[in-house]
## 1
Amino acid sequence: MTFGVVMLVHTAFDRAEQVARHWTRGGCPVVIHIDNNVARDDADALHTALSADPLVRFSKRHRCEWGTWSLVEATISASELMLTEFPQADHVFLASGACIPLRPVAELRDYLAERPHVDFIESATTADVPWIVGGLSDERFTLFFPFSWKRQRFLFDRFVDFQRKLGVRRRIPEGLVPHMGSQWWCLTRSTLAAILNDPKRNRYERYFHGVWIPDESYFQTLTRLYSTRIESRSLTLSKFDFQGKPHVFYDDHLQLLRRSDCFVARKIWPQATRLYQTFLGTGGVPAGRSEPNPGKIDRIFSRAVERRLRGRPGLIMQSRKPRHGFEHGITAKPYSVFQGFSELFEDFEDWLSRTTGARVHGHIFAPDRVHFAEGQRMMNGALSDSAALRDYDAQQFLTSLIWNTRGERQCFQYGPEDTQDIVEMMARDPNAQVSIISGAWAVPLFKSGSTFAQLRRTAARLQKIEARQLEILRASWANARVRIWSMAEFIEAPMEPLQTIIDEMGGTGQRHLSEAPHMVDLSGFGQFLQQLKNQGMHPYLMGDFPMESTDQIYAPPARKPYLVR
Amino acid sequence: MRSVVDRTAAIRQDDILLFCTARNENVRLPFFLKYYRDLGINHFLFVDNDSSDGSVDYLAEQPDVSVWTTNGSYKRSRFGMDWINHLLRRHGCNHWCLIVDPDEFFVYPFCDTRPLSALADWLDASAIRSFSAMLLDMYPKGPIGATVYQRGENPFEIADWFDSGNYTLRRNPAYHDLWIQGGPRARAFFSEAPEKAPALNKIPLVKWSRRYVYLSSTHCLLPRGLNMVYEEWGGEKASGALLHAKFLHTFADKAKEELARRQHYAGSMEYRAYIRKGPETSDLWCRCSERYINWRQLEILGLMSKGNWA
């Protein structure tokens, strides 16, 4: 006793011939259906090549078109022929010309012989199927589809819309519960015979004639009526991508296919010579009694679909240029932005890199040039330090920097003097950790010793820019982790906010800061602000500083490391 | 344009064709032909622009090459595109056509294990008509031209470095193409005028139809839908790269020649910048340059993508 193979062929005839011979060499009868669209010469050639084989028959040819009843018709004709011509076929295996048996025919025969009453057919109700592509699930069974999807797409879509509006619902024949699944099945003789000899077959056929993609539902539905035991899975390894077209196997998939232990795989690229040689030449790769295990192949293909639909977060490249709001990750990795810290602390950058081990840049958006960490002129990915190149597209400069340095936390200094084009993007970016000591831009002005007439203008400009920044970063749509302190608030207890920021940056465990950065000497700063006010400029972002001429409280606490418990 | 050797009658239905304009590129041709034959190009169609180095004779000897020759102006033919568009329309329809310069080498996902016809079949099955491959400038370590490129040699044994992450992309609303700039030329020659840096976006592989036409070089096509080679909703489409073997010793010679002819794009800006910088000292290599290994490396770096081809 054995199983028979029904082969639907429409292209790559030499491969189909090769596979058919492989089946018959293993003792399996084969019935071939050649698509009626195929040129007579090609069909005749296949006919001649295989007609001498006593185990091969050719069934009545139908003109097949994807998504239509013709494919089921072809399958039915071939199956009927199989059942009458080859009484030794206990199971019937539906395959295509692009299928390739991976394991020896005998292993599949034994496998089926041990399960004489099992029908292997993927069959699930429409409510439970996640893989439907194109949005038609239930409606496959309840609408009319007189137009060809391939040739008359516009009419097809409009007519579906029209029926939806009208609320058209075809009646499903009594007793049928629509099921769907992979079109590649392996049924027992008794189930298949029952389906083909059903007294109501004409009624069912008329119904399925109007169903969309009936080759994924006709047998899947009717098997439910007759089968004593259904294994709802296909013995054919066949993966579909997001467009609903099958993934193709090439020579470089050889090892994957060898280890999958699947019986049959599709679809094979006709020119994958090594695959055909390996699996047909030597009679297949034995796997004993093991069950098919396509897990690894599943993962590879689902990763490919994921790559196509979601892409790599934070990557902008020639074939991925997401629109605003569809980035799936504006930047690749978390990064930290500090505003006002290097103004308030003398050695903030060194301190930060010592404490966190992150890469700490200076003002990378400074007007003169990009101040990369350690004074470097060039960064990963050959990012140049030219301000003109950077400002040509500041946002992509930042996404490139973060993408190029994946695996290493990036920190940089920022301020109202710098290129402002990135503020809105940072605010939207959940990867951005933005910490701002507002008003700290006044410290370098205070230290510069320039005349107030000059400073007044600069101070007014910087304050305006920073106020605008804060407004954006505080917007309701902002996703960044934003922390803003006024300068007065911050210097009261600087260690606590620093600890919070460092903790959030994560990395190696919970650590207490044992060393504080050195704050600049602020004595006289209150007076400096008052003088600005006297000049008619109103500095407010730094908070309230009392005007004391010699105030010790803002002086650096002590020129020595300072411990926090 | 005059036909020298026309072997186009030998083109079969499923053949993949390569179209190329060349001028005095004889030294590059042997490796170029070998590279693309190995990839699975079935027929080459060359337009020779008034070469004087024996290119025409060499090409005419090749069994899978058809050659036309012209002494028309490269610039006035829109950088050779008029000639190529004409040939595409006559011989390219319903074929997958690869349109490259003699110094451009096409790399695509799985190109080390799958021939070009596998890509073409996959694109057909996916209903994709055009495939992008950005230009990746390759350069040597040390001054350009320190090592002399020998005929037949793999140019990427000399120029095997590239920039991996300093590109800017913007969408051109008129034709929906992506305008890509950056790389070593932008940082070395255009660091003060980045908007003038050369375009690196290319769409060199197209299933040709009589309704199609290249607008400027292979950067941009009509109808505009062919330029939509990028995903806008977050995913990644499949794409490749054109390794650009421009920076060999021939670059220095060409710079002088082109400057005299003033034929090249952007008024020979980059040649001028190159000569101004001084050919002896001009080293495009830097500490952050990346050394080329294979397509998988480019994929990981995010310069090209497998898309959903697995």
## 2
Amino acid sequence: MPYQVLIVEDQEMPRQLFEIFVKSDPRYAHAASISNAELAIDFCRHGRIDLILMDVMTELGSSGLDAAEAIKKEFPETRIIIVTSMPEASWLKRAREIGVDSFWYKEAQKEPILAVMERTMAGERIYPDEPPLVRIGCASNHDFSQRELEILRELIAGDSNTEIGKRLGISASTVKYHVQNMLEKTGMHTRTELAAVARSLGIAIK
Amino acid sequence: MRGFVTLPVPAQNLVCFWALLVCLGGIANAVLLWRQKRRLLCAAGALCFLGAYFFLHVCRAGTEWRLNGADDPLTMALLRLPGGVILAALLLTTAVCILLYRSVSAWRKTHITSASIKESVDGLPAGVCYYLEDGRCIFSNHRMNDLCLSLLGQTLQNGKALYALVKESPIYAMPDGTAVSFRHRLLTYEGAPLHELIADDITELYEKTEQLRADNERSRRLAENMRAYGETISDTVRQQEILQAKINIHDEMNRMILATGRAIQSGSEAERRETLKIWQNQALLLCKEADRREKSSTVSDLNTLASVIGLRLVWKGMPKSREPAVLTLFLAAAREAMTNAAKHAKAETLTIAVSEDAAALRAQFTNDGAPPAPEIAESGGLAVLRRRLEAAGGSMQIETAPGFCLAVRIPKGGTSHAVSGFDRGGSGDAPAAL
């Protein structure tokens, strides 16, 4: 009996692509495709779902990671592969924490999705070592420290150093120091430029 | 007769002139030392003067004696002193005089006088002024005079008038590009009130403040831009994702075309069939997509879910709002209605009636299943839904006859004012049994 696959993807094109892949392999059956991650759990409740291909940023801002967490709690047997094109490093970490089975970067990963699906169904957990390399100014996302990425995430909201510091539990001057470091690494001139570019590249998403 | 009088007359005159100089020097020293409040040295100066004066007196007396003879015994005794002694006395007096004068100038260099105070205060960048209760100015410096001239248009005479002007707004930007800040203090001097008015030079501070204000304004604008950017970013990213996906599809098609070309040229029958099947799948998908694209993905998601549950959805109107907050609540209500219809009522059809105006979206979910007990306990999903709706300023109503009906009102535009007036009336709290 083929595995029932649920596709959670709000973009038409990648969704079509996943459907083509799922339908091309007789070991999988396409159960349904939806845009909003919040609904995924309903499909698990009302029928058998063996595997979910889950995007992170889905319709109406609903988070695929939140949905995956709820599903893993209620249906630990259901395998979940997070598929995303955003190199946001914290997602990788969070996916591991909530027990997502595999993680696949849409454009950057060499291994085809079908191979990842096959290994995941065989019980393997497949995670890329790190997010795909994305150039930002003179640096890449791999050049940023954990703390810098945290600050970058807060920077996107347009908050002041004091507000960011308060949220992360550090002083405003420390925040300023890290921001300055990032500006030097990337060769950018303003924090606004840094935040805008980082967000649009998906290096940091709040 | 030996002594001074035996000297030749020009020599006598020269000595007299010398004594006159010492006499004047003694007076000057005494006066200066008196002003420096050094009384002891002042007395020494005075003694110099007296000595020199007495000598002059003796000279005059000597001349008279030569002419008329003299009887003053003291003068006679002095006149009889040898010339060397008189010369030595005069020399000593001169030396004392010079030493005193040097002491006076040395003291001047190491001590503060009122003139030196005035001089140094005049050099200050700040304006300083002290005036009495009636406004009479007793001390002021150049800077304060200049300030007064530019502010009042007259020289500083009345400190009170200047203070009255600067009392309300103490900071002034002067025409020469500087900025000053006035401050006032009431002191007591020798039992009488003394007013102190000081104008601090805050040019640099003022410029920095202006700069800071401009910078703050700039960063506020940037933060605003950033926020606006943050709001539109998900759309932008989505567009980029779509573009990337289109590229992928394009590449996929390309690959398929190449594979097809190969299959046609050299492939086996089975291979050609396989290729044909893939093309068919692709075409089918694209057709389905074109059909689906018309509807919002929320609606299509709900339809997909309904088909899995085995429920038929009848739409009477569709949600048109694109606000994520509104659609999220609508989706939550629809999920709840679908779960109830399938689980409790075993219904086949769920009718969703949606009406919308500028203020709110109203949706009514009715199922054709078995009617529930007239009093249903609102717990679990329904209670959560009510809390979410009411937190957003919306409302929710449940009717149990003739069938189960869930009605929700979701306000638009993120306003949170709760409006209780609902289509079918009644307060939202009681599980109404109509």
## 3
Amino acid sequence: MAERSMLEVRGLNAWYGESHILHGVDFDVNEGEVVTLLGRNGAGKTTTMKSIMGLVGTRSGSVVYRGQETIGMRSDLIARAGIALCPEERGIFSSLNVTENLMLPPVIGPGGLSISEIHALFPNLKERAASQGTKLSGGEQQMLAIGRILRTGAKLLLLDEPTEGLAPVIVQQIGRTIREIKNRGFTVLLVEQNFRFAATVADRHYVMDHGVVIDMIQNHELAANMDKLHDYLGV
Amino acid sequence: MLSILGYNVGPMLAQGVLGLINGAFYALLSLGLAVIFGLLNIINFAHGALYMIGAFVAWVLLNYLGIGYWPSLILVPILVGCFGMLIERVLISKLYKLDHLYGLLLTFGLALIMEGLMRNYFGSSGMPFAVPESLRGATRLGFMIMPTYRVWVVAASFVVCIGTWLVIEKTSIGATLRAATENPALVQAFGVNVPRLVTMTYGGGVALAAFAGVMAAPMYSVNPSMGSNVIIVVFAVVVIGGMGSILGSILTGFGLGLVEGFTKYLYPQGSGVVIFVLMVIVLLLRPAGLFGKAA
């Protein structure tokens, strides 16, 4: 591939307290790509996202974002470098209304979407602007969690299971959104359990197991590798 | 004299008004405690001592530098607030990874040290602080004579409390503060320098205490134990209002001042304990406090 590498993860190890979760994770994300991390529960996908963001207790190895080593950086400085996380638990703040939640992450650079562009993507957020953040439906909360990181000018978006537990029609809307933000030049690293969904949005897939990356599959080769994938994911 | 159910309304109102003045101090102090507890999860036992330091700094500024009450009202909260930020950076921030109890013990120790140092330098007898020229005098209200300065105390602390509440509830910095209170790690991962926010919040809470200290200086004698006298009641106020609830601490502060005042008229012997009796009742019926959210 000729694309420029945006994120290079090499030998990433991570610990929560005493438990060693990641055992040397290696992968790359190129500028403008949508890349997924697939794998069973407990494979280390979410921990990988959190480690990139500087949110785990201890980590070692190398995470280079646009030529800058971030492994020793504080999470707010990693965010300021241009990476933004949409966490698995969505992280909507109950003491903030929808607009306050949307406006919470500080703008870290140019290129973010305006509020009206976010409202165009997610009309529900406009209608419910004054509602308490956690009073939204699960789907609306997910839209809010994605919408608020589109505003900041971050170029690499880490989306951790954005479709988890959502109705099919909402999943489709999230899929459209991911394709739309890819067209706008954002780069996306996506954690997914649902590889059928992942196949509709992604360029490449990394498969994780027991805290390491065990395979990489191009999206157009996915059909040919279906047996292997079923085996990896145990589905 | 007007009377209801055998009680004279005049003296009762007078005690109520006096209670409201105490309530103004309860509100300012418990508000600072609530803001600090919300974000830092630390019960700031040094709060009373910092209130006392506020009064002393105003006294020192007046007697050594000739800086009067009005400039002190702005200057002292800034100075003491900076001192608070220093305490947070150098000492309290080292304890965030430990149990909350350590923060409580540390700030309790700091309170004792500050009180001891002040007693050592200034003695314990207390020093007078003149009411500023423009606030001298009193108004005859019919049922009592109301010193102008006390009216000012209630009004000023009400404005400061509401102002603080508005900043926290209606501004973007307040939204960041509320979010960081809920989930500091995520707020930091959005690019907010949360450690700095924590330091500034502690400084802000301390500045409120110092402001209360300056306002108290002309009313009570400036003495090293003025903080420990009031802080126990303030902790009871915070427990009744609900830990970390901003509006709750303001309303409870003023409200309990009133309750204390009325009790002074209705059952004078009970006025010293009524707040603690209420605290026990609230803890039994609503452990999270009147305005607190259940954990």
